[in-house]
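Researcher: Sequence recovery benchmark, item below. Answer with residues only.
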């Protein structure tokens, strides 16, 4: 077990790891400990770890205990993060962790924490609540996807059945990297070519499916590489080399693997989530009903697929022509008008 300590902060964080996995986070603040315990109990492992990391960053920049934090401190944090070059999305994510902390403290000790400094709510007489949050406004981001030739080049560079399986599951089955490394043998339902995802972002348990090609590649990995190695490990994907040999693959290991192959084939801006973006976009473009897509990829909001509608001009033109061909009455009218 390895232990990481933070210093020079009013709230000191102690992070313990076993086999590169965070297993415990404690601080010298009982209030922060309460919140982190709540997150560990009610959220996924990755969400809990991310909250802990973002709070650690905040309290390193703002060296005060929670009971001393005021709204101007949050503004100072935003300014510092912006000066250090962090993106609006990153700043907002860290603010969300701080906001969640104070929302819980407002419930836990309402007299000591009457308002949330990040996102206070005020009610004007006869009106709905009006938010005065500090979140930075963001333009809607368009997910970046792979071109077909880029996917072909990248897939040809992969050297093991394990790595091919990982990439195809993130692309074709639209899995998050955190979900793919968490797959256990008991989650596989081979007779129906599907995988049970028990927990994910937003606590949505769901079923995802594999096409025949992905399924065959996964079987090649299990038959030729995993075989009977490490029978005590319940996770499907494991490390075969180095100090981590025989342990479940970590998110960092997959990201490092992707960067390695991207460098070999000279592709830029390649990351795990880009495969998922590409897969979801392909499903949208092929006309799969949106409720079915949301169910498969683990989205709640009906608007969640809007960013994936960044279709090419050629695709939009083709769909426009198909729609017009179906409008026979319009075609007859336009023919008469041209006489």
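Model:
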């Amino acid at each position: 077990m390895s232990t990481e300590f933070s210093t020079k902060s009013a709230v000191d964080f102690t992070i313990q790891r076993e086999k590169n996995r965070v297993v415990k986070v404690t601080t010298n603040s009982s209030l922060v400990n309460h919140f982190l315990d709540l997150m560990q109990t009610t959220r996924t492992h990755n969400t809990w770890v991310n909250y802990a990391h973002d709070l650690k960053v905040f309290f390193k920049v703002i060296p005060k205990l929670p009971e001393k934090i005021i709204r101007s401190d949050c503004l100072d944090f935003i300014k510092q993060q912006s000066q250090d070059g962090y993106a609006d999305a990153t700043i907002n994510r860290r603010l969300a962790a701080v906001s969640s902390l104070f929302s819980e403290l407002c419930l836990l000790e309402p007299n000591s924490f009457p308002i949330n400094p990040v996102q206070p709510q005020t009610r004007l007489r006869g009106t709905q609540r009006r938010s005065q949050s500090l979140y930075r406004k963001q333009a809607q981001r368009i997910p970046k996807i792979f071109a077909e030739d880029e996917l072909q080049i990248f897939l040809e560079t992969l050297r093991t059945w394990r790595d091919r399986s990982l990439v195809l599951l993130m692309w074709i089955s639209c899995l998050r990297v955190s979900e793919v490394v968490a797959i256990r043998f008991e989650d596989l339902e081979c007779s129906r070519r599907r995988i049970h995802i028990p927990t994910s972002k937003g606590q949505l348990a769901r079923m995802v499916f594999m096409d025949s090609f992905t399924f065959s590649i996964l079987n090649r990995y299990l038959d030729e590489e995993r075989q009977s190695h490490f029978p005590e490990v319940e996770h499907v994907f494991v490390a075969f080399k180095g100090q981590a040999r025989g342990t479940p693959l970590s998110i960092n290991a997959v990201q490092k693997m992707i960067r390695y192959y991207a460098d070999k084939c000279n592709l830029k801006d390649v990351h795990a989530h880009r495969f998922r973006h590409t897969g979801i976009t392909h499903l949208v473009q092929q006309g799969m009903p949106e409720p079915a897509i949301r169910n498969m990829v683990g989205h709640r909001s009906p608007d969640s697929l809007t960013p994936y509608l960044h279709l090419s001009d050629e695709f939009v033109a083709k769909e426009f022509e198909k729609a017009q061909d179906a409008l026979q009455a319009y075609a007859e009218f336009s023919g008469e008008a041209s006489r």
